[in-house]
Design goal:
Two copies of one chain form a homodimer. Chain A has about 200 residues and is mainly beta. Chain A has a single domain, classed as Roll (Pnp Oxidase, Chain A). Helix content of chain A is about 10%, strand content about 45%. The first copy, chain A, is built from three helices and 15 strands. Chain A has a seven-stranded antiparallel beta sheet. Strand 11 of chain A pairs antiparallel with strand 1 of chain B.
Chain lengths: ~200, ~200
């Protein structure tokens, strides 16, 4: 397949859309972020990246905590809204009913089915970005989305979590169908013999 | 909605599944990675996180380059395979037809519709993870997936890129439908009056 170079384009896809929560000047504030992801599983390590001048950053730096909240597609209008206005200009504290975990300073959104309460373990800047790497202190899930298998609690399938995806075509997407199981699909693959 | 705490669980979702490429001992090697994401857009800043003992890391450290290749759902068996075997044990250099960009040392997979050629700008370790933050030197896209609008080339919609998603229910997923446009959907949201 012939390739075209598009210069230096940030085509990472899909991007999970989350609401990052922090207490800024003692009030909950929420920023819509797509620069968010996983860095480790055991123990859980995550990050968010945010423009240096973003209001949310002040609160994260002050408390060394933040939250990652996963909205559902139904919440798209308010999610998009939180990405278009700054907490400096608009008080976003009344947009959501919030709760707190053991860290006390990371506001979490009750309406989001999954919430990660995060403790910053590393912070660094590159260009005009500030990156916060954090351990997950506690994970909260709506009780209707928790399943118990072999005595162990875990989370239902992705489709029921109904997350918002984003891509750099500037569109939001829903998640599609399950297409396979991790560490099983390789059984359908027959590597070429090197001999 | 009552919440259940699941302890400290890394429920970031969905996760984009990519093949990270590096030349290790002068041969292309590819690792399936879900710990990958965006850290900045202008200029494009990305990262991958990989267990410290992973074979791929050797090549990234040596050359300070790597590639991010986005497979399609059709490639799932070989993608899953690359996540189950180490390059120490299996020579993965013959699995894909590769090409190189200006950096010369970041092998890219021709069959993947989008390839990012990456130059490491920061490396750090937390726990047993090694995290490589990189600038995108060049982005390659299959010519059939490039569109031109107002004289500017960009990429087609996400559905046509047909990426593989992963979630921590250990399932792979396809992407769903477009559900909205960035920075537009907030027009459907009417913030509560604070007065």
């Amino acid at each position: 397949m012939p390739k075209i170079s598009l210069g230096s384009a940030p085509y990472i896809y899909p991007i999970p859309i989350i609401l990052a929560g922090a207490n800024v000047n003692s009030k909950p504030n929420f920023a819509t972020i797509g620069d968010c992801g996983l860095m480790g599983i055991r123990p859980p390590l995550v990050y968010i990246s945010s423009g240096k001048d973003h209001y949310t950053n002040q609160g994260i730096l002050e408390n060394e905590t933040f939250s990652i909240n996963f909205p559902t597609t139904e919440m798209l209008p308010v999610v998009d809204y939180c990405g278009t206005v700054s907490g400096r200009v608009v008080d976003k504290s009344s947009l959501f009913e919030v709760f707190y975990g053991n860290l006390k300073t990371a506001p979490m959104i009750l309406k989001c089915p999954v919430n990660l309460e995060c403790k910053v373990v590393k912070e660094f800047s590159i260009q005009h970005r500030q990156i916060f790497v954090a351990e997950v202190a506690q994970t909260f899930v709506d009780d209707t989305l928790v399943i118990e298998q072999d005595g162990r609690k875990s989370i239902v399938e992705l489709a029921r979590l109904d997350p918002i995806l984003y891509a750099l075509d500037n569109r939001y997407y829903s998640v599609g169908s399950a297409i396979g199981t991790g560490y099983q699909e390789h059984k359908e693959f027959h590597p070429p013999s090197n001999g």
